[in-house]
Write a structure and sequence with these properties.
Blueprint: H1 11-39, H2 45-51, H3 53-80, H4 82-86, H5 88-111, H6 120-128, H7 131-152, H8 159-179, H9 186-191, H10 193-196, H11 198-207, H12 213-245, H13 250-256, H14 262-270, H15 272-291, H16 296-305, H17 332-352, H18 357-365, H19 373-380, H20 402-418, H21 425-441, H22 452-469
Helix pairs in contact: 1-3, 1-5, 1-7, 2-3, 3-7, 5-6, 6-7, 6-8, 6-12, 7-8, 8-11, 11-12, 14-15, 15-16, 15-20, 15-22, 16-18, 16-20, 17-18, 17-19, 20-21, 21-22
């Protein structure tokens, strides 16, 4: 992330974020003490501190350690993902993942230390944020679990076992980040849990080798279930985070681009021409995203929903018309209002059905502030004076992300190439180049950080894809069915 593009923080931002990190440290201590109270034989929580003077000093030490760990975590996010933690919900999400992982590890650790789902925190953050964040937070979580084991210390008999658990947290979680396939199916992800269990199994066998064959097999089975358990719990609780925090995981992207999803099904039924256009735009957007190392599944989803607003007045768009054009009976001003409304309508529909905000932004931004030339030219014929072209332009805003810029380009290119007579590679490339240059001249990419090099890569990707879609076909001769010879 480029630090110069990060937004400036106000004093209130520092105060709010600091309180959230400080609150997490306090919450961890509360969880530690609560867990200790559950396993301790004394019924009165206060008596634990009165009867054991060292317990209070332990608690203070661990609280200070948690404060320091939280401070280091804050420094990491502030320097590397400042805009991310400026949003309160993102901080709450990170800490909620850690707290849930802690509770789950505590509960399963009561059964057997090797049954702990060591990789749970890392794999959840892998899907919710990214690999880098998952690895760093997993380190923080591993250290917190070590402090918990040292504090409670009721089923780990020696410090050696505590440090073993620390290593298993770190190794298993980090391994999971690189093994688990974010783009795989839920079943495939679940199966990868067996690979995540390997370091736990190896450690269990080495440490419990002298415990007897029966006990060794039991321990090995618990250890083998650790990684599988992490991925099973992931598949159960991930939808909660997806909906609660509006996160678009690859699982969620697959669900909302399914042709049976509510809005896509409505698009197919009410605007079939727009849907066919959408399929090609989605294919182009995927190719472009792959070419410049963006998420192709996200680009595909944005493309699927960029024209969803057309379902409100599908007949007013050329791809859905069959001979009759209702704009022939309307003024250019009214036609302009209907056409440009589909961008905002799409965003409204997406938000109404509580689909992810990134899809609404793609629908709203995919035309930027481009003019609707046809109706502007039509209006000029009815006036002798000058017209303000902004009155015949889309409302905007301009694309604010690279993917939305890609959707803008692909949407226009797909429509323009349809009008090209001889669709040779050179002619298609010329048309695509004109589309990109026109939007650059109209300053449509000023709000996103797309580069000239990336635009050139996008041009080549679209040209190659469209040349393949609209290639010339062999003309087959007509055959007449004749009578067989009587002979």
């Amino acid at each position: 992330m480029d630090n110069q593009k990060q937004t400036k923080w106000k004093t209130s931002d520092y105060t709010r974020v600091s309180l959230l990190f400080f609150g997490q440290a306090i919450l961890m201590i509360v969880l530690f003490v609560g867990a200790y109270a559950l396993v301790d034989e004394r019924e009165n929580l206060l008596s634990m501190f009165l009867e054991d003077a060292t317990l209070l000093s332990k608690c203070i030490y661990i609280f200070i350690a948690e404060i320091l760990l939280s401070f280091i975590t804050f420094i990491y996010f502030y320097t590397d993902k400042r805009d991310f933690i400026k949003k309160t919900s993102n901080i709450i999400m990170i800490f909620l993942v850690m707290d849930i992982s802690f509770i789950v590890c505590f509960l399963f650790g009561n059964i057997n230390i090797y049954l702990r789902p060591y990789a749970l925190c890392a794999v959840i953050l892998l899907f919710l944020v990214n690999k880098r964040t998952a690895i760093f937070v997993n380190c923080f979580f591993s250290m917190s679990m070590m402090l918990f084991d040292l504090f409670v210390n009721y089923y780990l008999e020696t410090n050696f076992e505590v440090y073993t658990a620390l290593l298993l947290n770190f190794i298993s979680g980090t391994l999971a980040v690189f093994i688990v396939d974010e783009e795989g199916s839920r079943l495939k992800v679940l199966a990868q849990g067996l690979l995540v269990s390997i370091p736990v199994v190896v450690s269990a066998v080495c440490l419990e080798f002298t415990s007897g064959v029966e006990e060794l097999w039991k321990t090995a089975l618990f250890a083998g279930a650790s990684g599988l358990l992490s991925l099973m719990i992931l598949t159960v609780i991930l939808p909660f985070f997806e909906y609660a925090f509006g996160i678009l995981t690859n699982f969620r992207l697959g669900e909302i681009t399914n042709h049976k999803s509510r809005l896509i099904k409505s698009l197919i039924e009410r605007a079939p021409g727009t849907f066919n256009h959408t399929l090609i735009v989605a294919s182009l957007a995927e190719a472009c995203s792959n070419a410049i190392n963006l998420n192709p599944l996200l680009a595909r989803a944005c493309a699927y929903y960029h024209d969803i607003g057309k379902i409100r007045k599908a007949d007013y768009f050329a791809e859905n018309q069959a001979g009759y054009n209702p704009h022939d009976e309307l003024s250019p001003e009214l036609s302009t209002d209907i056409i440009r409304a589909h961008a905002r309508d799409g965003a409204d529909i997406i938000r109404k059905y509580r689909y992810p905000e990134v899809l609404a932004e793609a629908a709203e931004q995919h035309h930027g502030t481009m003019p609707i030339r046809f109706f502007y030219a039509k209006a000029l014929k009815f006036t002798d004076g000058e017209l303000d072209i902004e009155d015949y332009s889309y409302y905007g805003p301009k694309p604010k992300t690279k993917i939305n810029a890609i959707i803008m380009i692909c949407d226009a290119c797909e429509a323009k190439v349809r009008t090209v007579g001889n669709r040779t590679h050179e002619n298609v490339d010329k048309a695509v180049k004109e589309i990109i240059e026109e939007r650059m001249d109209m300053d449509q990419f000023s709000d996103c950080d797309i580069t000239f090099r990336e635009l050139d890569i996008i041009r080549n990707a679209i040209t190659n894809a469209l040349a393949g879609v609209y290639h010339d076909r062999v003309k087959y001769p007509k055959l007449k069915k004749g009578k067989k010879d009587a002979n």
